[in-house]
Each structure stands twice: as structure tokens, then as C-alpha cells.
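CATEGORY: protein folding

GOAL: derive C-alpha cells
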Amino acid sequence: MDLAFELHDLVRTLDRHAEKLLRAEDLSYNRFVALVILSEHPGLTVRQLAGALGISDPSASALVRKLVAAGFVENVAPPGSGNMRLLTITEEGRTKQRICSALLGNSLDDNAARVGIDPDDLARTIRALHTVVQTTHTDQGA
């Protein structure tokens, strides 16, 4: 069994499931994740949001335009900031995020528990593995 493939396949399966659930709210999974990120980190630029989502700057710009058009995000230039524009989630965006979070629920936690894995232990293990991988790649200059 290949751990890298299994993790990749699990993430793809979870993403597809989330996409299906979020269709009812007319929101893509990437737009939902953008709302989560902006709720936790207000004032990001489009480039910073793109990096957090792992998508290109043009893709992030298109995503932000959709969120702004829906009234979920504001894209403003603070006084004296020149061309820099900062993203903040609106109250309507927070409401949509909460609705979608409830819709997605805790299915991964529930499934982990169903096969005898403590969800908190799994989360800590994944975080530790992620940290090691990031550190290893940073140390190697990747």
C-alpha cells in the first residue's frame, strides 16, 4: 500500500464530496475554503489568498470577483495603501461560511471514529507529518 497515493485519493474523495454538498449553496469548495481563510486571516491580498489556496493568481482573482459579486467579500484599498487591495469577509460571507460549515459537518471525524481512530489523534498525526514534510522540503531548498 502506498501512503502517498492513499492520502491523495482520500483528499480527492473528500473534496468531491464537499463539492457535491456545497452545490446546494451555490458555492464551490475553493470559494468555501477562501471564506474560511479570510474569516481567520482578514486583510490578505489576492496573491496571499492564492498561495493559501494553492492556485494561480489569475484563478484567485476570478474566485475573488465571484465572492465580491455575491457580496461575501470586500476588496478594498485602505487609505494611503496605493495599489494594494485587501480582502475581508462580509457579514453575509460569514453567514454563508457558517451555513456551509454546518452542511459539511464532521464527516471525516465521524468516519475516523467509525474505524476506531480518534479524530483528534489523527489530526495531530497529520499536523506532525505536515510539519516534518514542510521542514524537510525547506531544508532541502525545495
